[in-house]
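User: Last request for today: this protein with fe (ii) ion, please.
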Amino acid sequence: MDRKISINVNACLPEMIIAETIYSDYGAVIVWEKTELNQNIINRLKDLDIEIIQVYESSLPHNRKRKEVKPQKKEEANFTESYEKNTDEFKTVLQDLSAGKTSSIEKTHKIVESVYARKDQHREIIDCVTQIRKIDEYTYYHSINVSMLSMLIGKWMKLMPDDIRLLTQAGLLHDVGKCRISPAIINKPDKLDEDEYEEMKKHSEYGYYLVQYIEGMDRKVMETILYHHERYDGSGYPMGLVGEQIPLFARIVGVADTFDAMTANRPYRLKSSPFNVFELMQNGCFGYLDPIVLNAFLLNISYYYIGSKVRLSDGRNAEVVYINRQQYGKPVVKVGEDYLDMSVIKNITIMEML
Ligand SMILES: [Fe+2]
Ligand SMILES: [Fe+2]
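Assistant: Here's the final one, the structure of the complex with fe (ii) ion:
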C-alpha cells in the first residue's frame, strides 16, 4: 500500500499525487484524492490558505522512476473509448426496443457495470458530458451522460454503493420510453406543437410500462423512469407530484437530465457554457429542481473549473480562482495580478473557455 505523507503546500511540486481529498471550511471539495498536482492547483491551494496536504510517497520526485509512459493519458484514451462503446451499445438497445425486442434490456446491465466501473473518474466524466455531440445521436449520448452524472450526484450525496449502482441504471434508462415515440417528433429540430409535445410527454409512462415486467428490475429504477419529469414545485408530469413525494432518484436524475439538456442545446456556444449553465440552473431552476440535490451538484461540479483559463468579454485572459456559492456562474477570476469578482463587476462577462 502506498504511504501517505504530510507536506506543506509551499513544498509541493507538480506531478505529486494527492492522497486525501481536500475540503474547504464549508465542506466543499477543492481537490479530489488521486489528482495529480499542477502549478494551477498548487497556486489555488495557496490562495485558499491551505497549509498541509497529504500526498502519496511514491509520487515524490525521487520515487518517480517508473514513469516513462504517462498513465493518465492512457486512462483518458480508454475512458473515451468505453464512452463511445457504451453509447453505441445503448443505441442498439433502443433500436431493438423500438422493434419490440424487450430482451435487449438485459444488455443494459453490461453498460451500467461499465459506467459504474468509472465512478472515480470524475474529471473524465465531466469532460465527456460537456463535449460537443452530434445532434442526431443526441438520445444515445444523453442517456449515457445522464447515467454518469446521476452516478456522480449519488456519490456527492454520499449514497450507499448499491444505490449508486441503481441510480446509474435509472439514469441510463430514464428516457427508454422514447423508443415508442415517433422519430419525426424525437428528431424534430423546431419547437414541438401542442399535440406533439403531449405525445412526447408520454415517454415516461411508455418507459415504465416497458420495464415493469422485466425480471429483476428494481422498483427505484422503475419509479425514476416514470417520475423523472415530475418537478419539485408540482409543475411536472405525469402526476404533478410535489417536493419529496417525488422519489429521491427521480429528483437526482431530474437535475442530471436538466444539466445535460442545457449543455447539449447550445452546441455552438458550448465552450462558453459551463458558467452560463450554472447560472441558468441556479437562477432558473430553483423551484422546479430539488434545491438540495441541485446545490450538491453545482457545488461539486463547479470546483472542477477552478484553475481553468477563460477569455473575458473585454478580450483579456483570466484564470478562475474561486467559485462563489451564491452565484456559481460568476466566479472570482485572476487577470495578471488583479482579482475580479464577476458577481460584482457588471460590464465584463466570461466569453469562453480557453
Ligand atoms: Fe425524459
Ligand atoms: Fe432525458
